[in-house]
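INFO batch 0412 | record 1 of 1 | parsing
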Amino acid sequence: MKTKKMLRYFSILLLGLLTKPSFSFSTHTAVPIDTLDKAKIDSSLFNIKYPELALDYAMKSNRLNPYGFEVSLLVDSICLTLTDTVHCSFHMPNLGRVNSTFGWRGRRVHSGIDLQLHWGDTVNAAFDGVVRVSKYGRGYGNYIIIRHENGLETLYAHLQKRFVVKNDTVHAGTLIGLGGSTGRSTGAHLHFETRFLGRPIDPELFIDFQQNRLKQQSLFIHAETFDVPRSKRSKRMF
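INFO prediction complete | emitting tokens
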């Protein structure tokens, strides 16, 4: 297994040296994953170096993390375009207050944030995308994963009802379900996650849940983005 990871690592480094895309791959120059103008990226390099970022890479899978990507191999910084004024928009999944944040909770990482809601409150898609998972799981209860064209995935859990099925196309603000307390849950709330390459990242890095808006229109991803230091504790807000 270690040999396989090392081969992947050196192949990525070699591709970075041998290819000359229109935007350089390095830890200093971000790779723009702009869903609206993919001509900006050398498509062969995009598919060979990080095939996991292709929109259809994991669409057939119902697993939480089907990518199998070791994030320590992410030797580049990647810039994800979150929104623009023409094609791509953002909508809060729910307007409830944050009652539990991202971070360590005991021996496990709480891999998202919890938004307060009541049974039957509406839950909406945060960005345009395609439903990759819509099913019931013991922990998440009724949950939905939406894959977005920039590689980001959003997860919505503990739903009372799901209104979308796998491969449905949704837009920011599309009603996808109703809030509830299914699965491993002690009361009605929305557990909301943002994931990249199958790994959770803190939604509050780019979403302001107090002002109900994005903090910025793009997000820079690098290997350290996935680190969750022990000092980062999940906080119950009330």
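INFO post-check: Helices lie at 2-18, 43-49.
INFO record closed
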